[in-house]
Specification:
heterodimer, A: mainly beta, seven-stranded mixed β-sheet, B: mainly beta, four-stranded antiparallel β-sheet, about 0% helix
């Protein structure tokens, strides 16, 4: 299985900050990477697929980049509703696997 | 509105069987894979397996192969996840989700995003 490692595991930031979360794959996955947001007690929500494609309805302050083994999710200007846990998921090899999550907290 | 609605919370004893459901509406249920994801208390997401309701093609993560059974009844637009003998370690939240996919070489697929999620079903297994 492909292992997905996210960093940092948690990050504290303020409203208006720019935040970047990194996801590294244990082997190359081309651009087959998705990002999800999960708020406490809620189902995950798809933000980005194919590394950089914004899912319909997701605010443009979210962006994704990368290919191969290294990927980033960037939130350009944090809003109060963005404080949540973020997961990456690879789709290049079966089974699709998630990273361990990055918790984004209010500073 | 495209949605997946899951069955309610379950409390079971070890050794009991269980089948939870996920009903789709607002889209062609037979045209998209449905996947299942486990989230143990306070932990991350784990991809369990997937089914294509159109022909019941089912694929399991090796970690869950033999531990659960995924099925679907396309006549009522419902997918299922079942256990024959629950363990305490099956205590978790279980989500179904519509899986976006594109054909890959051979008989494979790239399952490149889960775009519609159910609300989750909490399963508690305790004696």
């Amino acid at each position: 299985d492909i292992q997905m490692t996210q960093s940092p595991s948690s990050v504290s930031a303020s409203v208006g900050d720019r935040v970047t979360i990194t996801c590294r794959a244990s082997q190359g996955i081309s651009s087959w990477l998705a990002w999800y947001q999960q708020k406490p007690g809620k189902a995950p929500k798809l933000l980005i697929y194919a590394a950089s494609s914004l899912q319909s309805g997701v605010p443009s302050r979210f962006s994704g980049s990368g290919s191969g083994t290294d990927f980033t999710l960037t939130i350009s200007s944090l809003q109060p509703e963005d404080f949540a846990t973020y997961y990456c998921q690879q789709a290049n090899s079966f089974p699709p696997s998630f990273g361990q999550g990055t918790r984004l907290e209010i500073k | 509105e495209v949605q997946l609605v899951q069955s309610g919370a379950e409390v079971k004893k070890p050794g009991e069987s269980l089948k939870i459901s996920c009903k789709g509406s607002g889209y062609s249920f037979t045209s998209y894979w449905i996947g299942w994801v486990r989230q143990m208390p306070g932990k991350g997401l784990e991809w369990m397996g997937i089914i294509y309701p159109g022909d019941s093609d089912t694929r399991y993560s090796p970690s869950f192969q033999g531990q659960v059974t995924i099925s679907a009844d396309k006549s009522i637009s419902t997918a299922y996840l079942q256990w024959s003998s629950l363990k305490a370690s099956d205590t978790a939240m279980y989500y179904c989700a519509r899986q976006m996919s594109i054909a890959a070489a051979g008989t494979g697929y790239y399952y490149y995003g889960m775009d519609v999620w159910g609300q989750g079903t909490t399963v508690t297994v305790s004696s």
